[in-house]
Each structure stands twice: as C-alpha cells, then as structure tokens.
From TrEMBL:
Superkingdom of this protein's organism: Bacteria
Names of required cofactors: [4Fe-4S] cluster
Signal peptide (UniProt feature, chain positions): none
Molecular functions per Gene Ontology: anaerobic carbon-monoxide dehydrogenase activity
UniProt entry keywords in alphabetical sequence: 4Fe-4S, Iron, Iron-sulfur, Metal-binding, Nickel, Oxidoreductase
Native source organism of the sequence: Intestinibacter bartlettii
NCBIfam families recorded: CO_DH_cata
Protein name: Carbon monoxide dehydrogenase
EC number: 1.2.7.4
Protein's UniProt keywords contain Ribonucleoprotein: no
InterPro entries: CO_DH_a-bundle, CODH, HCP/CODH, Prismane-like_a/b-sand, Prismane-like_sf
UniProt keyword annotation of Iron-sulfur present: yes
Catalytic activities: CO + 2 oxidized [2Fe-2S]-[ferredoxin] + H2O = 2 reduced [2Fe-2S]-[ferredoxin] + CO2 + 2 H(+)
C-alpha cells in the first residue's frame, strides 16, 4: 500500500484498542467500506459552539450562537440559558428513550397468558412488586395479577397526580432530600413534556431552574422508567443468574447461520431466541447447508441476552459496522436505540440482511419487518426464517472472522450479588438475603469502595481505552467494579469478568474476596436500564445501615459516554447522592454557571456532583481520592449506627 493509505489506516486503527476491531478496520479499507472510524477522520475539527453547548436552534429566528461578539441570541437568551436548555433537553431525550422502552415492557406484561409467547417467569417477584405498587396479590391468579400490575405501572407514565411510587425504595433521608429540592418526579411523560415546554422559546431562562427540571426529569428515568423496565423484564423473562459467556467478534460461528441482535428491548430478542430454538428452524438451517444457528448480541440487547441465556456478546456500540464487515453475518436484527443508520450502507457490501423491526426506528435501506408483541412468536419466526434463507448468499471469499474472544461470567442481578456473597462468606446465617458480608468487607476496608463504571463508547476517545484503563486501575486498588451497557462488553471482551483473573488484575483485598465469594472483580449487572439495579443495591445497603446513599463509599463513572441516555443516567445518579465521574466533557462548558452548578454547588442540594477529567488515568485517581475522602465519615457512621448498637444488643440479627 502507498504511504498515504497506510497513514490513514493507522490513524483509524489508533481510534480503538480492540485488536479484532483493528483487523476489521483494515478489512473495511480493502473492501472499500466506510466506517465510523473513516468518517471520524473527516471531522478533524468539530463545531466549537456545539461542543460548548452554546448553539441554540429552538426557534426559527436562529440558529443563534454565543460568542464574544454575539453574547446573546436574537431573543436575548444568554449562554447560561442556552446551555441549560440544551442540557435539559438531553436529559429529556435520554429519559424518553429508557422510559419508552419500559413502556413497551409494561405493555408486554399486560399481554402475558399461560402457555403464551410471553409468560410470567417470576411469580414471586411479581407478587412482591405488586404489593409494593399497592396491588394486593392475595387470592389472585398470577396472570390476573400481571395484568393489573401492568395497568398500575402504565399509570406511572401518565398519572395526573402524585410522584413516582418507586421513590419509596430509597432511604427515607434521601426521599426527604428530593422533597426539599423538589425533584421527586411526577408522571414520567409529564417530566419529559415539562422540559420540552420550558425549553421552548420564551419560556424558562434561568440556569438554576433549568438544571432543577433536568434533574427532576432524569429522576423519572432512574426511579421510574428504568426501574420499571428492569423489574418487569425480570418478571417476564427471569431474574438473571451468573452464567458463562464469551465476548468479541470471534463468537461468530464459521458454518452456522449467524444472527446478531442489536438494540435494546428484550421483548423482541427473547422471541428471536425462542424462534431460533424451534426444531423447524434448526432443520431449516441444516437444509440450507449450515451446521446450526448462532445468535449473538450487540449493545444492550447483547447484555440482556447474555445475562439471561448466556448468549454470546458479539461486540459493543463501536463494533456494529465491523460485525457486518466480517462477511459472516446472515442477519443483523435491530429494534431501537444506538443503531448506526450506516448499517444499511455497510450491509450492501455483503450478503447481510439488515432487518429493522420497530416503527420507532425505521431506517432507509433496511429490510423492514415490523414486530408486534401481539403476534410475537410468528413475527420472530418470519424474521429468523429470512435470516436462515440468506445463508446461501454468503460469499466465502469475503469472510474474515477475527481471532479473539474472551470468556466471562455475567448476569449478577441484585439477588445474585447479595446471595453469592452471603452464600460463601456467611453460611451460618439462615437468612440468605442478609447484606452483612457485603457490608462487612466494605466497612472493614478490605474493599475500599464500589464503583459503577458504565455506558457507551465515544469516538472522542479510542474505543474501550477509558473503560479498561479505569476498571483496571480501580480493581488493582481494591475497588469492586460493577458495570452495565457497553462498558460491560468492554470488560467481558478483556477477561475482567473472570474469577480466574482476579488474582492477575485485582489488589490483594479484592482478589481475596473474589476468591472466597467466587465472583469476578468486575461484575456484570446488565444493560443500561439495569443501572436501576445499582440504585436498588445502594438503597438496600443504605437502608440496612440506616444511612443515606450519599454516605456510602461508592461512585459512578461513565468513561466514554456519548448518548442522551447516558446524560440522563449521570444526572439521576448524581441526584441519588452518588458522585459521578465523566471521561468526556458534556456540552456545557459555554456556561460558567452551568459548570459551577453541575460540578459544584448541586452538591449542596443532592449530596453529590459531576466530576470531569478527559485523562482516564487521572479520572481513576479522582474516583479513588473521592471515595477515600468519604471513608472516614462512613466508618464513623458505621461505628455509631451498627457496631455500637450491636454491642448494646439493640441490633438483634442482621443490621
Ligand atoms: Fe448505547 Fe445501551 Fe451507550 Fe451502549 S451503553 S452505546 S447508550 S447500548 Ni447503554
Ligand atoms: Fe435564537 Fe432565542 Fe430562537 Fe434560540 S430561542 S434560536 S437563542 S432567538
């Protein structure tokens, strides 16, 4: 290759640290296929106004862009108003995405029937949750109950009065903080509508008020939408249990029909799993000359499938195009969110069918096969058949499945984390659900803290670099890492979710706990809506200790965030009292006031704030310093609330 081409290739390959991705970027060049990495080269300088969040096009007089020469928009909006409005709208976008996903799951719960495509997998969890939501399960048929809970949950999206019922899961002190600051979210849709209204031209023009409504809206994401999504997914499809899997593009199988599921909602992917396991589909695969069918997942659908079925993870957000470029994929089936429109073009270079299924995410150039929950299994069969029949079009000369994959243990729901710790460490205690072992290792400092390292890949950093750098640094220093979303894929691809690797990567304290308790140093909690599991675990621990979430030695981190969903998540995590660290600067720097509030004074309201550092090593140090600074207070509280009471006999059994 001539020098210029080599330079271009090298530049693209430097944008990821994944070796499979590097190999496929080279293949893409040879095949003449454009990828995100190529397009990024064309974006040498990104718009400075956009980066700072000071571009407004909320009305037809604009776009207005704030600069020293034009310090106000045509309507007079200043940089604080414009940045605040843009930030609030990002939160509303993210909340809408997670919550609309949850709405579909809720609707699906209403469609369950005994023996039908959708059934209740966890009757006990349903009963418990029904009770929590104020529905009496006594004497009710389980499906009658499911339908009733579905209705009650649907009301959380649009009820005219009251605030989210799920707030009651949080410690009382935390609830009081929310009440005081006025960020208890009302109906989910209402919070989204409120933000859209207030950010319309000529409405809210006060940065404090805009940040406030961004928080209230995001709280509806974490403490309503996402939490309902996670809970009902467990009830419908089963609570995840630790299961073995493999990750990275090598999971694509040579002579099998390869079907990749990409997107977010388990309502579709669960049915594809069911359909592909049917004997008629397996037979059809043999008929067309394949050995069988291999399903694998990308993005959060990948997480949902792997944690419930051990289905392999093909890759993360930045590998979606590369997956097709292997030439070995019969169908890429998608529903909603994080799907590159570019897949339509990439697929034209290979035999791959790019199948869209949701009216919410139709993409020009795709094969659109609309999926309906009402006819779920039939629809899924039609889609799987289409994929199988495409096997004969595979062109062996275009196939290159890269060499690497890693093994991983995934699927640690709240129950698994608590149960597993308890099982091994404390078998003498009858109550299997005690949090004592987890709390003991935290309080003694054997584990310094717990950090949720979550979220996307961002083309502003080399793919996976920030995730891995931060996770490795944390576990090396005895911080337990829990992860979701594409961060989880990064960990799985790199062996961080293997118990066997604890000794290699983790510090002495954490490695010992991992060995004793039989957990990996980086724990897979699921998809991005499953960040609500983190809220749940924190609430359980804080409640058990009679503390606030903000008292715990925990932190959140989104090292490579990119989506509006990630901004909403970060905001509700801060709102929940958890210090949150970002590896990519959000578009707020154009307003000194916004930065000052989000990275500072919001702490006076909610007990935590954002911290940003685009240097991954430094960000890891920031996280650890922050948790260490919290520890003395935590240990003191622990002494006062737990140890002293235990000695005086006030604390009878657990905590
Ligand atoms: Fe999307 Fe959920 Fe981000 Fe991955 S982590 S890029 S949002 S798939 Ni959710
Ligand atoms: Fe410009 Fe104001 Fe219209 Fe925004 S709302 S585009 S700042 S005139």
């Amino acid at each position: 290759m001539e020098k210029k081409k080599v330079d271009v290739l090298e530049q693209m390959q430097n944008m990821t640290i994944d070796l499979n991705s590097k190999a496929l970027i080279e293949k893409a060049e040879k095949d003449g296929v454009e990828t995100m990495y190529k397009r990024k080269l064309g974006y040498k300088v990104q718009c400075g106004f956009g980066l700072q969040g000071v571009c407004c096009r909320n009305c037809g007089m604009g776009p207005c862009r704030i600069s020293p020469k034009t310090p106000r928009g045509l309507c007079g909006a200043d940089e604080h108003t414009i940045v605040g409005r843009n930030y609030a709208r990002m939160c509303a976008g993210g909340t809408a995405a997670h919550s609309d996903h949850a709405r579909d799951i809720t609707h699906t719960l209403g469609l369950t029937t005994p023996g039908g495509a959708y059934q209740v997998a966890e009757p006990e969890k349903l009963k418990e949750f029904a009770q929590f939501m104020g529905v009496d399960p006594e004497g009710k048929d389980i499906y009658e109950l499911a339908h009733e809970v579905s209705e009650v949950c649907l009301m959380e999206f649009g009820k005219p009065h009251g605030v989210s019922k799920l707030l009651a899961r949080a410690p009382k002190v935390r609830q009081d903080i929310w009440k005081e600051y006025g960020i208890e979210p009302r109906a989910i849709d209402r919070e989204i509508a409120t933000v859209m209204h207030s950010t319309h031209i000529g409405c809210c023009a006060d940065i404090d008020a805009l940040v406030h409504m961004a928080f209230r809206c995001s709280m509806a994401d974490g403490w309503a939408g996402s939490m309902i999504g996670t809970m009902l997914s467990d009830i419908l499809f089963g609570t995840p249990k630790p299961v073995h899997t493999e990750a990275n593009l090598n999971v694509l199988d040579g002579n099998n029909v390869n079907i990749i599921l990409h997107g977010h909602e388990p309502t579709l992917s669960e049915m594809i799993v069911l359909a592909s396991e049917l004997p008629e589909m397996q037979d059809l695969a043999k008929e067309v000359g394949a050995d069988g069918i291999t399903l694998s997942g990308i993005c959060c659908t990948g997480n949902e499938l792997t944690m419930r079925h051990g289905i392999k993870i093909a890759g993360d957000f930045h590998q979606q195009e590369l997956a097709i470029i292997t030439g070995a994929v019969e169908a890429m089936i998608v529903d909603v969110q994080c799907i590159f429109p570019a897949l339509a073009e990439v697929a034209t270079h290979y035999h791959t069918k790019f199948i869209t299924t949701s009216p919410k995410a139709q993409i020009t150039g795709s094969t659109y096969m609309e999926f309906h929950e009402e006819t779920a299994l039939e629809d899924a069969k039609t889609i799987v058949r289409e994929a199988i029949l495409n096997f004969k079009n595979r062109d062996a000369s275009k196939v290159m499945v890269p060499e690497l994959k890693s093994e991983a243990m995934v699927g640690y729901a709240e129950e698994a984390i608590v149960g597993q710790l308890n099982n091994v460490v404390n078998t003498q205690i009858d109550d299997m659900n005690t949090l004592k072992p987890l709390i003991d290792v935290l309080a003694s400092g054997v584990i310094r803290g717990v950090v949720g390292v979550v979220g996307c890949n961002n083309a502003r950093t080399p793919s996976n670099y920030n995730h891995l750098t931060i996770m490795k640094e944390l576990i090396k220093n005895d911080y337990l890492v829990v992860t979701t979303g594409c961060g989880a894929s990064a960990a799985a691809k790199n062996g961080l979710m293997l118990k066997e690797n604890a000794a290699k990567y983790a510090g002495k304290g954490l490695a010992t706990v991992c060995q004793l308790v039989d957990i990996p140093p980086v724990i897979h909690l699921g998809s991005c809506v499953d960040n609500s599991r983190i809220l749940n675990i924190c609430s359980l621990v804080a409640n058990a200790l009679d503390m606030d979430i903000a008292d715990l030695p925990v932190a959140g981190c989104a090292p490579e965030w990119m989506s509006e969903k990630a901004i909403a998540i970060g905001t509700y995590v801060v709102g929940s009292g958890i210090e949150t660290f970002l590896g990519v600067m959000p578009p707020v720097t154009g307003s000194s006031r916004a930065v000052e509030i989000l990275c500072g004074s919001i702490k006076d309201k909610v007990g935590a704030c954002f911290h940003v550092n685009e240097d991954a090593e430094a960000l890891a140090q920031d996280i650890m310093a922050c948790i260490e600074a919290k520890r003395p207070h935590f240990e003191e509280l622990y002494q006062e609330k737990v140890l002293n009471k235990r000695v005086s006999g006030e604390l009878a059994c657990l905590y």
